[in-house]
Amino acid sequence: MNAETGRQRQARDRAAAAIRRLHPGYFAFVMATGIISTGTFLLGPTWLSRALLTIASAGLIILGVALVIRLARFRSSVAADIRAPDRVFGFFTIVAGIDVLGLRLAAAGHPLATAILAGLAAAVWLVLTYGVPASLLLTRARDSVLGGVNGGWLLWVVGTQSLSLAASTLIPAWPSQSGLLAPVAVALWSVGLVLYLLLVSLILLRWLTVAMTPETLGPPYWILMGATAISVLAGARILDLPAALPAVRATAGFVEGFSFALWAFGTWWIPLLIVLGFWRHVRHHWPLSYEPTLWSVVFPLGMYSVATLVFGKAAHLEFMEPLARFMLWVAVAAWVLVTVAFGARLARQPTPAERD
Q: Which domain holds residue 122?
């Protein structure tokens, strides 16, 4: 009995430590799993899509409970993340994770669930989209946050574009609200576009002015491509809306042209990101092991596949479908590898630092 009680106590302590250290960007797991579920829904196999939908839904519930516990019991840890420029934008994965799952539920014929999730995501986005910049501008302890700029900052773009996707996805279910939802979708897409241009400029400035190390050149830089991909998908959804809608009629040409430019730029990023990964793990022997930000590599691959497929159909570009099919299986393979690494991390004994 005492041994059993000791094991239970140890398990509780380990769970509490994991919640206290929960990375702000862990909802990228839901983003990655949800978008690959959407991709397999569109391209098959359907059994894999349903399985991934179940996993993504369970992941959202578990992470949501963990987040609530963390906010209630470990507020100092949350406050430390908010003050950290290199981590605070990870909270936008909450918004994107909720909306990406909502997108998949809409495809399954559950628009009400999508609307509820979109409302929750919009409330979180409103808090973050003004609270995060305000915290960096008004409460920072250093003169500059440039050293903390990384690819994770582009999660602000991803969260914003996910709301644009939610708005445009709900229009076919509630056409009577199209007069409100269409301008919201186009406006959020436009905001996300401007944010992308601004934040990429900051990232390039950081690359050119702050020394690059294997530690700082981590997986979040793949969001450079992921942010373009979700912007392309949001643009494609806008192009699929009825052309008679004033917001669509006024912007369709611009949305289509800029979406193609973003798709091309996102495609251009992929070889460079592979080179940077080679530099980190092969040239500098950085260990290739599980870290929560690896889901920020899986998500862009899945989003690129879905965005390429949907935009190719909207713009009548036939060459995009075979590319989308190939990239979907690349994303599935990446998801499996990261999941196996995550399982291996859970199975091994925690280090003293992880128990503290």
A: 2-355
